[in-house]
Amino acid sequence: MSRVFSVEEEQAVLDLLHERYGHFLCGERFRLGGRVEPNFIQLDLFLERDDQRFRYEMYFYLSLEENHVEVSEGRDIVLDFVGYYLDEYFKHDRELLLPLDYQRYQMGEYYVYAKGDIRDPLLDKLADEIIEQGVKVRPDDPRFKGL
């Protein structure tokens, strides 16, 4: 397993995302991850709010074998799909969400798989505390503010 991008490439992609979509963001940022395996590329993209109350987790993968491409070309195809999807996502006021399970999308002659989920990391952490540790939480706990 190896990284999809070098540290420098990752920063360049993040800079491009913020340049292209920054005017849609309010107290939010993108974060990248992913991996390259012998048969596929997986790109993980997260749109996170700084207050940890919102995270849109997006996962994209491309089968190198199915698409008859090498890693560098596959990576470019996935990035093209990410750009296409984010254009649509923001154009539709963030209402166009990826499905919870991987779905196949055609990009010209290639196929990319994508899925997504919206999370509330702060609420997830609070729920974990309650469930795993049996922590009693008062109804006036400040972490409930805004729920």
Roughly how much helix do the residues carry, as a percent range? 25-40%
Alpha carbon gap, first and last residue: 40 Å
| CATH architecture assignment | 2-Layer Sandwich
Query: The biggest beta sheet, please?
Result: 5 strands, antiparallel
Structural class: alpha+beta
Q: Using DSSP, what is the number of strands?
A: 5
The succession of helices and strands, N to C, reads: HEEEHHEEH
* Tally of separate domains: 1
Determine Rg (CA atoms, Å): 18 Å
Uncertain runs: none
The general outline is: elongated
Instruction: Provide mean pLDDT, rounded.
Output: 92
CATH hierarchy, class: Alpha Beta
Describe the model:
This protein has 147 residues and is of the alpha+beta class. It has one domain: Double Stranded RNA Binding Domain. Helix content is 36%, strand content 29%. The protein contains 4 helices and 5 strands, in the order αβββααββα. The protein has a 5-stranded antiparallel sheet. β4 (103-107) and β5 (110-119) form a beta hairpin. The longest helix is centred in the middle third of the chain and has 21 residues, at 71-91. It starts with 6 loop residues before the first helix and ends in a 14-residue tail after the last helix.
